[in-house]
C-alpha cells in the first residue's frame, strides 16, 4: 500500500511539473534572446554601412555639412549605446535603445533626401551600391523586428497564462517589452496628398 501511495505521489509530481511550463519558459526566453540578437546584428550592419555612405556623399555635397554631421552624431549615439541582456527586461532602457535607433533612421532619411539634389551622386555606382545595401539592411531590420515581436508575444502569452503564470512568478520571468513607436498617434493619421501645388 505504501508503494502504491509513493507511486501515486511521484505521478502527481510529474504531472504537476510537466504542466508548470518551466521548460517552455527556457525555450521561449532563448527564442526572444536570439530574435533580439538578430535585431542588434542588423542595426550593427546599418551602422557599419553609414561611414562609407557619408564619405561618398561628402565628396559631392560638401555644403550639406549639417546633414552629414547629424548622421555621424546619430551613428555615434547608436553605436555607443550599451546593449545588455537587461535591455530586454528594462522598459526604460528598451525605449532609450529605440529612440537612439529612431534618431539614426531619421538622420539617414535626411541624407537620402540630400542625395536627390545631386544627380551625379545618384549616378555614382558606389553610392547606388551603398544605398541598395542600406535599403536591404533596413528591410532586414524590419524582418528582424517582426520576428522579435512575434517571439516576445509568444513568451508573454506563456508568462501571463494560467498555470504557467505561477511558474513565471516563482522563477522571475517577467513580461518583456515589445517594439513601439514614439509617434504612434502621428503615424496613425493618413498623410494629406495634394497634387494641385
Description of the structure:
With 197 residues, the protein is an all-alpha fold. Helix content is 76%, strand content 0%. The protein has helices spanning 2-18, 22-60, 65-80, 91-115, 119-123, 125-160, 164-170, 184-187. α2 runs antiparallel to α3 (65-80). The chain is elongated, with a radius of gyration of 24 Å. The mean pLDDT is 76. Belongs to the LemA family. Its main location: membrane. It is a single-pass membrane protein. Keywords: Membrane, Signal, Transmembrane, Transmembrane helix. It holds the Pfam family LemA.
Which secondary-structure class do the elements indicate? Answer: mainly alpha
Order of helices and strands: HHHHHHHH
Main beta-sheet annotation: none
Helical amount: over 70%
Q: Give me the Rg, rounded.
A: 24 Å
Organism: Herbaspirillum rhizosphaerae
Subcellular location: Membrane
Keywords: Membrane, Signal, Transmembrane, Transmembrane helix
Protein name: LemA family protein
Amino acid at each position: 500500500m505504501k508503494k502504491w501511495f509513493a507511486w501515486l505521489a511521484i505521478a502527481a509530481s510529474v504531472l504537476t511539473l510537466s504542466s508548470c511550463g518551466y521548460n517552455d519558459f527556457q525555450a521561449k526566453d532563448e527564442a526572444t534572446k536570439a530574435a533580439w540578437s538578430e535585431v542588434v546584428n542588423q542595426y550593427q550592419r546599418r551602422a557599419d554601412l553609414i561611414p562609407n555612405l557619408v564619405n561618398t556623399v561628402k565628396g559631392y555635397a560638401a555644403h550639406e555639412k549639417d546633414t552629414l554631421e547629424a548622421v555621424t552624431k546619430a551613428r555615434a549615439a547608436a553605436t555607443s549605446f550599451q546593449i545588455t541582456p537587461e535591455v530586454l527586461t528594462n522598459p526604460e532602457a528598451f525605449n532609450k535603445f529605440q529612440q537612439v535607433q529612431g534618431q539614426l533612421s531619421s538622420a539617414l532619411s535626411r541624407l537620402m533626401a540630400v542625395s536627390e539634389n545631386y544627380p551625379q551622386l545618384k549616378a555614382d555606382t558606389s553610392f547606388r551600391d551603398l544605398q541598395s545595401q542600406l535599403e536591404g539592411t533596413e528591410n532586414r531590420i524590419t524582418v528582424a523586428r517582426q520576428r522579435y515581436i512575434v517571439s516576445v508575444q509568444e513568451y508573454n502569452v506563456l508568462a501571463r497564462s494560467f498555470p504557467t503564470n505561477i511558474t513565471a512568478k516563482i522563477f522571475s520571468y517577467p513580461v518583456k517589452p515589445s517594439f513601439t513607436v514614439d509617434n504612434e498617434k502621428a503615424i496613425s493619421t493618413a498623410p494629406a496628398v495634394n497634387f494641385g501645388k
